[in-house]
Amino acid sequence: VRVGEIAPDAYDSHLQAFPFFLFPFPLSHEFPNDLARRPARVVTAGVRYRLGVASRAVAAIAGGYGVAALSAAVLALCLPAAFGMARSEATLTGTLASFLVFVAAVMWVFAARTAVRAWTGLAVAAAPLGLLLLVLLRLTGAPA
Amino acid sequence: MKEGFRQSMAWLHTWSGLLVGWVLFMVFAAGTASYFRTRSRSG
């Protein structure tokens, strides 16, 4: 810093001895107002990436489970109605197929361009399955 | 996720392998520990 120039941190040099560990807000003569005027916390690219990965993990585990369970239920009700398959065999077939559905859902979630797109794809897959399940439950007279 | 499907799946393979691998390790370690019996004092 050349002579006559203000050092970059000179304006808060009076905070050097402030006990931040006791009270994390630097007290000034306009105390709460200067805090309210502070700029909003910036969400950096790294935080955004990690939030995206966390969102996708939830989508893959919970959302994938939901879609897989829906497909298992729909197949267990659909196969006897469509092909005259025995109900026990239809249940087993639907359960085995649901494992493939789960894996496909996880792959979709982590292949989609954005996390929002991943969630949207899961919803698009789950909506017709859910509707079909409601209709089948009504048709087969099972307790809905 | 990444540039291209193959890179995305490589990333997924790495991290899901680590996660599931450690979960399985915990399952096996806990199962082994449940069979462990300390030697009684009389031998």
Structure description:
In chain A, helix 2 packs antiparallel against helix 3 and helix 2 packs parallel to helix 4 (about 115-140). Helix content of chain A is about 65%, strand content about 0%. Chain A has about 140 residues and is mostly helical. The mean pLDDT of chain A is about 85. Chain B is mainly α and about 45 residues long. Helix content of chain B is about 70%, strand content about 0%. Chain B has one helix at about 5-35. The N and C termini of chain B lie far apart (about 60 Å). The interface of A and B includes residues 56, 106, 107, 110 and 112 of A.
Structural descriptors:
heterodimer; A: mainly alpha; 4 helices; 67% helix; 0% strand; B: mainly alpha; rod-shaped
Radius of gyration of CA atoms of chain A, rounded to a whole number? 28 Å
Gap from first CA to last CA of chain B: 59 Å
Basic shape of chain A: elongated
Q: Looking at the structure, what is the overall shape of chain B? A: rod-shaped
Into which percent range does the helicity of residues of chain A fall?
A: 55-70%
Low-confidence stretches of chain A: none
Given as residue ranges, the uncertain stretches of chain B (5+ residues, pLDDT < 50) are: none
Annotate the secondary structure layout.
The complex is a heterodimer of chains A (144) and B (43).
Chain A: H1 31-36, H2 45-83, H3 87-111, H4 115-140
Helix pairs in contact in A: 2-3, 2-4, 3-4
Chain B: H1 5-35
Question: How would you briefly describe this protein structure?
Answer:
The complex is a heterodimer of chains A (144) and B (43). Chain A has 144 residues and is mainly alpha-helical. Chain A has helices at residues 31-36, 45-83, 87-111, 115-140.
